[in-house]
Structure formats: C-alpha cells, structure tokens
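Lecture 7 notes: from sequence to structure.
We start with the chain below.
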Amino acid sequence: MKFLDLFAGIGGFRLGMESAGHECIGFCEIDKFARASYKAIHDTKGEIELHDITAVSDESIRGIGSVDIICGGFPCQAFSIAGNRRGFEDTRGTLFFEIARFASILRPKYLFLENVKGLLNHENGITFETIISTLDELGYNVEWEVLNSKDFGVPQNRERVFIIGHLRGECTRRVFPLSGENQPTNSQSVIKIGNVNPSGNGMNGEVYQADDLAPTLTTNKGEGQKIAIKSNTIKQFGVLQPNFNQCGVIYETDGIAPTIRAYQGGGLEPKIIQRGHGYNKGGEHDIAPTLTRNSYQENNYLSDGFRIRKLTPRECWRLQGFPDWAFDKAQEVNSNSQLYKQAGNSVTVSVIAAIAKELEILIE
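Predicted structure tokens for the same chain:
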C-alpha cells in the first residue's frame, strides 16, 4: 500500500513500513536537521516533500492524489480547547488537526498514528476522547494499544500508544491486540545501589543497578541519564550527565536500556567520564573509548567494579531499531547533538514493522 509519512523525523515509520512492503510517496518534516538525515537515509527522489505542515494548503493536499495510509507520530501538543465542543472543531489549533485535515481530504483507508502513553490520560482523558471523536466524525473506526519497544527485539523500555484508524466500509478486521511475545526481551527490575553526589543525596546522583531492564530515557531538555556498568560486560549502555528529573539517575544494565531522550545541544548530549589509569589520563569524551571487552581503556569506575559511560549516538539509533547503515548516512550530514535528539524523537522501527505487517495482512 502507498503511504504518506507525516511528522517524519528521520524515517522510523518509513523503515518499518517499507520492511513490510509498503511504498512511501512523500513525507513532511519541519526540522531541517531531521530532514537532512531522512533524505540521506532514504531515496526521496521524485517524492512529495513538505516542510511546515501548517503551511500546506488544502489544494496542495488534494494534489497528492491517492494514498492508502497516512502515518504520523504527531507531537503531543497541548489541546488547550479540547473538550469544549467535541469533535473536529476541538482539534483546531493543534498539530493533530493537521493529520485530521489531511485525512478529511485524502480519505486514506488507514491512519497509523503514534504518541506518548500519557496521551491516554491527558486532561483526565478528554484529549484522547476528542481525538477519537474527531476521527469518528471523519468516518474512521479507531483501535489503539500501548506497546513497549522491549517486546519487539530492542533493549529499550519505551511505552507508546499506537492508533489505527479504519475508514468505514473498507475493512473490519482489527490489528490489535498485537503481541511481541515471540521477540527477545528481558523484564527485570531496577535496583538502587548508591548516590554519586558529594552529599550522598538528591535524584541527580542516584545510582541504580538493572540486570536487564533499565529505566526510561524521556524526550525533553536537560542533562543526560547516568548508568553504572559492570566492567566485565559487553552490553555497555549508559548516560552520564545529571538531570533535573529521572534522567539524572545512574543505572547499571546488562540488557534493556532506557527510553532514549532527545537532547537539545548546548553540551547536554551524552558524554563519557573516564577515570585516569596508567598511560590514560582520563577525562570527558564524546565517544566511548570502551566499546570492546578487551580494550585497555576500560577503566572507568564508579565503585566496586562499576564504571560510568554514555550511550554513543550509534547506540541510541540501534536502541530505536535503526540499522548501522542508516546511522552512517545520517552521521555524514549531522552533528552528534542532532543525532542524539533525532534518536530520542524517533519511533522504534521494529514496533512499526510489526504493525505494518498486520496492515499488509488486512489487504490480502
């Protein structure tokens, strides 16, 4: 099926959809840095390219032609007037309205949307009710499910709500519930092991041990997440800077890493603090010098055999299910700070791929 990629970011939706055989006819992304990565990764020659979705006229939308699916991880913008009147009018002024506007004109068979889990209870559920009623008014039956990336083959705890809209009269079969039980996953708990602040107090210095599952790295501004890693482990995920909320926590993880945060630059991107030892003078690094088990530089210790280091940009992209070739192409056109931000803002490719396969089955 042909799909339109709205709020495209770096193309997480696109990679997942194309893996199931769907064809992208165009994309829309306002951020020039994300757009640069998208165009470096994907062959967009001859496709429709849109930037500011709010500036796209209805006439331009009609010119897109036939589309089977509209995809979009729309920003969770505040629905300041949600619930005042219900339905389509209540979404005006929000970015969700732009998806509704595209759907009202193009009338695709399916809508495939993603957002944070908190959308479900935002404003005591009024926001989500408004979204559902808006889609209902446009002629779409809606189903949704909260899925966790850790259940779909990536070591990251990332819960997101996925929404499928079915144009009435086109299809009655449901996509959800969707199980990731056959995917490799780990689900152990997070255990606090100490605090690195001089005072020994405060959330920014807390150190956690997570044998498999690490906490969530959220997408917001601020300093990075800390993780304490056993010095003899191969899976070295971590973030090192303190933060004003849960991302100031240090974790030790052998398996599932946290949800990735989108860093905003200004020195807030992940770094490695390396403790000096022998010829190594230590210091702060942008890229981990301890990527392999047998590296002589693996001497960053927090205490009792734990060392601290940050996720590299490549690791962040891997945690979102992007292949290394895609990261390599994006790295050629963007800085590390942008690569961190883009990973944090992206959807997890493997989750999208699983849903995309179900959409493909619907037409068989």
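Points to note: The radius of gyration is 21 Å. The chain is about 25% helix and 20% strand.
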